[in-house]
Design goal:
CATH class of the largest domain: Mainly Alpha
Radius of gyration: 18 Å
Strand content: under 5%
CATH topology of the largest domain: Rna Polymerase Sigma Factor, Chain: A
Shape: globular
Largest sheet: none
Number of strands: 0
Length: about 180
């Protein structure tokens, strides 16, 4: 009987927050199409392992806390297999692990400063599009509705913002050499 309640709990969370969870995860992994389904499944499996789910006061907050831990572990596995570490992934590791190496902290801070300088050169709409897509996990269509522009225009805004971010990171990398 207890197992049935666990499954009902996870099913309820999936119905209520599943789409937002997938967007959240997709926005934070490099290979979203391949990695997101596995990562989302890992979140639900961890929820099924909870001994006493009735004690969870805020299921949505708990869900996204578990998702953040899954993403952190995924980023750690990826960083061990990749030669170069993306500064955005470093930042997510810094946020969730207070015991992080100080050198990595400085590199992440410099990357964010460079991204900030790069984004000052982009239009406010392009900046807002980047934030809505990457931080809030909204789709291009949802951003278009919010900004009152077409999906194609949203793609252009996002492309402009990402080009500025890439240029800033490239300049930072050249400065290290």
């Amino acid at each position: 009987m207890r197992s049935d309640r666990k499954h009902a709990f996870v099913t309820s969370i999936q119905r209520s927050h599943g789409q937002r969870l997938r967007r959240f995860m997709s926005a934070r992994v490099r290979n979203a199409a391949a990695d997101t389904p596995d990562l989302v499944q890992e979140v639900y499996l961890r929820l099924l392992r909870i001994a006493d789910h009735e004690t969870i006061r805020n299921p949505q907050a708990y869900l996204f806390t578990v998702a953040s831990h899954v993403l952190h572990q995924h980023a750690l596995r990826q960083s061990k297999t990749l030669e170069s570490i993306d500064p955005v992934n470093i930042a997510s590791e810094l946020h969730s692990d207070p015991q992080t190496d100080p050198v990595a902290a400085v590199e992440a801070e410099q990357a964010f400063e460079e991204i900030g300088r790069s984004l000052q050169k982009v239009s406010p709409r392009a900046y807002e599009t980047l934030i809505l897509n990457r931080c809030e996990g909204l789709t291009l269509a949802e951003i278009g509705q919010r900004l009152g522009v077409s999906r194609d225009q949203v793609k252009k805004y996002l492309a402009r913002a990402l080009i500025h971010v890439r240029k800033g990171l490239d300049e930072m990398e050249r400065g290290k050499l």
